[in-house]
Write a sequence for this structure.
């Protein structure tokens, strides 16, 4: 509940801050797709009797950017599908979304916001070092807001 409320609050702040400059904004939309193969030698994370498998990974994604004279907002969404070759019961979708932006509120002051959401069944993460011992879904939501001021310009 708290993460959803924080995400909604961050989105509302971004919407209110950037709606006034949307008419003069430069808009950029970029679709993309990547694919690859990943091998795991212990899919169930068992200390004894490990099972191996290879997964085909397909990752379509989109980036949307609105940049104005005094503000910008960037959004990206990446759904990722993992399809295992020998153990299809372990196939899953992973979702990563990011929303970030900034607004100049004075000549040397800027408000910056960032929100990153991740939902995955993959127990290995490059950014999160939490030890997970199962393939259960894992959710992460990180939001930041800051005020940047340049002194002595």
């Amino acid at each position: 509940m708290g993460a959803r409320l924080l995400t909604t609050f961050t989105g509302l702040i971004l919407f209110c801050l950037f709606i006034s400059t949307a008419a003069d904004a430069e808009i950029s939309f970029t679709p993309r797709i990547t694919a690859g193969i990943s091998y795991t030698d212990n899919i169930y994370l068992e200390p004894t009797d490990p099972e191996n498998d290879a997964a085909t990974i397909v990752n379509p994604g989109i980036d949307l950017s609105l940049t104005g004279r005094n503000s910008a907002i960037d959004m990206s969404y990446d759904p990722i599908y993992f399809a295992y070759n020998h153990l299809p019961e372990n196939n899953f979708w992973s979702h990563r979304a990011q929303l970030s932006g900034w607004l100049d509120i004075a000549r040397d002051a800027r408000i910056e916001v960032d929100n990153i959401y991740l939902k995955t069944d993959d127990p290995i993460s490059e950014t999160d070092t939490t030890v997970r011992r199962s393939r259960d879904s894992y959710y992460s939501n990180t939001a930041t807001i800051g005020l940047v001021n340049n002194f002595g310009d």
